[in-house]
Target: CID domain-containing protein
Amino acid sequence: MSAASTSSAGYKMEPGALTSNFSVGDYARFFASGALCATITHGAMTPVDVVKTRIQLEPKGSKASMLSMGRQIIASEGPAGLLTGFGPTAVGYLIQGGAKFAGYEFFKKKGVDLAGSHEAAQRYRQAIYLGGAAAAELIATTLLTPLEAARIRMVSERGYAKGLVSAITRMGAEEGIRGFYAGYAPILCKQIPYAIGQFVTNEWAHTVADSAISKEDRAKYGKAGEVTIQLGCGMVAGVAAAVLSHPADTLLSKINKGGGGQGSAMTKLIRLAVETGPVGIWAGLGTRVLMTSFLVSGQFLIYAQVGQLIGKPPGIEIRSDSEKAKAVWSVRINFVRLTCKCRRKFPRARNPKIPPPDSPLQPRNPRSTLHAALLIFQATSTTSSLFLLQCKQMAGMDPFQVRLRFVSALQRVNASLPTIQKALSFVVEHAATLHPELWECITDELKSASINRRINLLFLIDAIFTDETLSATVRSVYTPHLERDLYLIFDLAVPEDRWNALLNLPAATKMISSWKSRFVLERGLLEDVEKMLEVRRAALYAMSPEKRRKTVVEAGDMQRRIEEDRERHKRLRERAWILPATAYTSQSLFGTRPEQLDPTYLTRTQTASPRAERDDVDGDRVWTTQDLDFSHMWEETSDFNDDDVEAIQEDLKLSWANQPPPTQPTPQPPIHPSRAQERFSASRPPREPASMRHPQRAP
Model:
């Protein structure tokens, strides 16, 4: 489960909304989870951050390492010196972490909603990620800057203040409000790339993990697998965040120490960048990569676990159809680049005669630190990605991707059979896990579709419960949803406020009749809907001319409706006359209820059909799907009804009233078997000799 990108399946959504409807309490849980994860991780990293800041503030050309600087701080200030600035760090990142994580979820949701559709959100997902991370970090940084300035001043100047309050008081008295925001621009230059690397890379890492590890494997691995994925994705995101934000972090430390001379913050930033140089600006990168990778991975882990404890809702997912292929190719490209760089950087691996870089015969490369940092970043990202991809290559789509593609299939549903079959493929494939989401997509499309599209979606629902290629298990999964939303579906298919809803009324009525004969739902529920449709028919015919004129029907819609109805009638004729019949016994088709086992039950519910039923060996009536379909079509299209049957019977009675009754045949006595054989032999003509019948066999 992604800390910043988790599944939104199962969370409550408003009708027609693209994303989950988060309340104020939900954002409070986002804030609390982010505040705790940032405070705990940054507080635990205070000693490492102190050592890193002291290394950055050392004179140019200093060779101080992390271990030597730590020993120097303990020797001069004691162990408490490693905790310098813990108060500003805890308070500052309590506010900053909560605002950043909650803001990222807020702006990401707004970005998806502003996109207007799932396709647009998928197309511009990188812009949504970047914009959400940058906007959230801008707000969080504005709150963090005064506390961060006080922390750096306490770390860089020994004995500056004893605590956070005294440091803020001294800075306010000496420098005023401007002193707190002296490094605001460098902080933005540091924190915004940091947030972008943190969140965007984490989204990418989870995309690779989702593509490599299926839901079955996640369930098999349990909690340990979930924690491993969160830590691994966080490590990759931490490396990216450290590399992107390290130059600004170095300049920020120098500005807060008073460097840069006079002028605005940007002027100081440019002047310090020139003075530091392209090599010095990357000083301490290895230490910061180590610190940030553990820090960010711990943040995402704590954010997810604390969120589960306090009931934090899942975030918003944005996935593309080709995300897996892109992730795989990205890993392969990074691996090739890493191999080429390693061969150029360490040529002795190919030619042992070339002296190593540290030998006197070959001068040391001044940019070795930068190259080593880039190699570390690429090696970490590539190794992590390859490890995730090797777990499993095949995996199912995530819920957002399934919903996105299913909505796209629903928008293309018309009277043609291929469009219905494509939508049915999603219904069958994800029936076990995502049936609530798929059914919700159908009802949402019904609410926003036109009259023509609503009848197409109604036929799709009919196919779910009447298509013989679908198993009974799939139907049983969707039956509770149909029973719950039965009135809503037919109310949307035949709305009472649109005059052109009369176009959908005959098809809806026939569908209810078909469901009654197939026992899709309880007969009482279907009869109630049938009565509702009759009331709707009367209300539509009684609609005033003023209301009728408000319903505007385009000529193109009418032409499209005619073509779709023609296609449906053509398919109905093919189904009734061409398709082979599949036999069902009356017991298997009609269930075990006594009224359904009554031999006259079908006679009471079906009118006469020119096709007679068949009987099997046991006398059980056998009806086929073709019989039922033909009976429905005969009932709906034929003018021959029960009144005609009664009239024919009356005519027959009148025609044969004066005729004498037919004479009964004279009963014959039984014949003994031997006499019957004699009579049979006598009745046969004499047989010719074999020589005459087969001349070639004659001797």
